[in-house]
Design goal:
A hairpin with a 2-residue loop joins β2 (12-15) and β3. α1 (25-36) packs across α3 (57-75) and α2 (44-51) crosses α3 (57-75). 21% of the residues are buried. The protein has a four-stranded mixed beta sheet. The protein is globular. The protein is built from six helices and seven strands; from the N terminus they run βββαβααβββααα. It is 42% helix and 16% strand. The protein has 146 residues and is of the alpha+beta class.
Length: 146
């Protein structure tokens, strides 16, 4: 089974034909950041400061723990486990690029210049809109303008 992650148009997680519900915008933002930067071990304090820049260090770390709990909860009842995708310890959090996942944004980036008409049409059909519309974190705005 493959975890499908949609970041274009609107945030969506799917396993087969089933949605994984992750209603927290900050948890969605955290997971999106981790998957877009897969295989990078992100220090907890840097993630907390990035996602909650106006919060105190203590509060931001608490918000990070809460967002991670919500991600774990989204996988509850799924045939997949969060441990297949996230490596979490006391210092860092990493999304495993070797895990079985599919990312819509990656498909757009991997389109070759010599793609066939059918491949181009498949990519056009895949494009659901801008990266994480309605999210206003600085890292998303910067990434969307690249």
């Amino acid at each position: 089974m493959t975890l499908k992650i949609f970041l274009l148009g609107q945030f969506n997680l799917r396993v087969d034909d089933r949605s994984l519900v992750l209603p927290s915008r900050t948890a969605q933002s955290l997971l999106a950041y981790l998957v877009l930067n897969a295989s990078v071990a992100h220090r907890r304090e840097i993630l907390a400061a990035l996602l909650w820049p106006g919060a105190t260090d203590s509060n931001a770390r608490g918000y990070l723990r809460q967002a991670l709990w919500r991600i774990r909860k989204a996988f509850a009842g799924s045939p997949l486990t969060w441990q297949e995708y996230l490596h979490i310890n006391d210092i860092t959090i990493t999304f495993d690029a070797k895990s079985d996942y599919w990312l819509d944004a990656s498909m757009l980036l991997q389109t070759a210049t010599n793609a066939s008409t059918e491949e181009i049409m498949a990519i056009v059909n895949l494009y659901g809109g801008e990266l994480l519309p309605g999210f206003y974190e600085d890292w998303i705005i910067i990434r969307s303008n690249l």
